[in-house]
Design brief:
Blueprint lengths: L3 E7 L3 H9 L3 E13 L4 E6 L10 E9 L5
Antiparallel strand pairs: 1-4, 2-3, 2-4
């Protein structure tokens, strides 16, 4: 039996965050992410990074959860 759902969404995806919140999900963690561009293969990746107070973080991965007891 499934009791808890987890999801991750980028912090700048406001529409998704609003929808998930309306559905009863709650935020439990924010992971700072930094963009890495591979010019050779033309690939962009977002990787988790440690917080550095002197370096700006571009976006976060927001982890949200929905417990069966808290769902609508």
């Amino acid at each position: 039996e499934l009791n808890t759902l987890y999801l991750r969404v980028f912090s700048d995806n406001e529409r998704a965050l609003k929808l998930y919140t309306q559905l009863g999900f709650r935020e439990i963690q924010r992971t700072p992410m930094r963009k890495i561009k591979d010019q050779v293969n033309n690939v962009t990746e977002w990787i988790p990074v440690l917080m550095d107070p002197y370096r700006e973080v571009e976006r976060y991965f927001v982890t949200m959860t929905l417990d069966r007891t808290n769902s609508i």
